[in-house]
Specification:
- The protein is mainly α.
- The protein has 2 domains: 75 residues, 434 Repressor (Amino-terminal Domain) (Orthogonal Bundle), CATH 1.10.260.40; 41 residues.
- Helices cover 68% and strands 0% of the residues.
- The chain has 8 helices and no strands.
- Helix 3 packs across helix 4 and helix 3 crosses helix 5.
- The radius of gyration is 20 Å and the shape is elongated.
- The N terminus is likely disordered.
Length: 132
Amino acid sequence: MWYNVLMHSENKKPFSQWLLDEITDRRLSYVEVARRGGISHARISQVIGGEPPGKKFCRGIAKAFDLPVDEVFRRAGILPPIPDLDANAEAMLHLFRNLPESEQDRVLTIMRALSTMHATAADDDANGTKGE
């Protein structure tokens, strides 16, 4: 469940502990994670033991857990954390990135329309012209 990880992005636990917790929570073996991610199960043991993961390893973990690569990179300290991004925004970002480009354009159009409608309603409330 990718959203479980995203909901806890503020958690500062070491990558090795996060990885072990994810494997345990998902009830997977190292061999199964390795198979899904195209990485070595021995390398999983090494990283859980405290060795730095590296980009190729993180890409494999992202694939194995169906997570955005940048989320795993952030967990591993390869990328800096995204400040002030709540769980809903992270979930939306993940879903958005999985859409084809044509669908991303449609989603942006809808979001812009909603934002404009909200801003207009807020202006009407502030000016006392709501419903006119």
